[in-house]
Amino acid sequence: MKYVVKDINLEDGLIRRKKIPVLILNKEWKILFEEYMTKDMLKSAKELREMLSEEKQSELQLKIIRKQKKQLMEKILLLSEEINNSEKKESINKMEETKEQILEINKKIDELEYNLEILPKKIENLNLSLLKDTINIAYGDIKEGGSKMKTLTEEITKLRETLRLKWEDRLYWEKRTQQLYSYLHDNLGHEETNKLDRHFL
């Protein structure tokens, strides 16, 4: 069916306040709406999946990079001890390399943390857009369902009346057939009625 898209104003923070889940991950939402999604909804759902995947990847990368940073920090401590004890040129070079690596890692950490800071809001906004489309579909179907139920109720009432009349007609013919057969049987007798049965029926 074609859904009439109406602009819906929902309160700010509604998704967080009402703890509305990410719709595409919600089992109940999938059952009710997945096969009725509009082009806009399919687009939003695709973007939402991509953002959720990006968020998950960023969290995983951040965990790995923080672990690498910890290892590099430990390496710096060891190199510092070596430099303090022996002043090896090799250790000084390694120390410089490790510091460079830490600076690069810090940049990556900043990028990932920034990404993880902005992604939840983007996800929330997309989810809100999908929720608005969901509301349009829900009310479109509720309205159509109300109209269809009214029509079907009227049709069922007519069918019941037709069925009642046909049932009464059947009962009438059943009773008349029995009465006529009894009359013939009583007046003409069993043998004669059997002969007539074979002739007429």
What number is the mean pLDDT?
91
Q: Report the count of strand segments.
A: 0
Largest sheet: none
Taken in chain order, the helices and strands follow as HHHHH
Going by helix content, strand content and strand pairing, the class is: mainly alpha
Distance between the termini: 55 Å
Model regions low in confidence, pLDDT < 50 over at least 5 residues: none
| 3D shape | rod-shaped
Looking at how many chains there are and whether they match, the oligomeric state comes to single chain
| Cα-based radius of gyration, to the nearest Å | 40 Å
* Estimated share of beta-strand residues: under 5%
Please give the count of helices: 5
**Helical residue percent?**
over 70%
Description:
The protein is built from five helices and no strands. It is rod-shaped, with a radius of gyration of 40 Å. The model has no long low-confidence stretch (mean pLDDT 91). Helix 4 (89-188) packs across helix 5 (190-200). With 201 residues, the protein is mainly α. It has a domain at 21-149.
Descriptive keywords:
201 residues, rod-shaped
List the helices and strands and how they pair.
Layout: H1 14-17, H2 27-33, H3 39-86, H4 89-188, H5 190-200
Helix pairs in contact: 3-4, 4-5
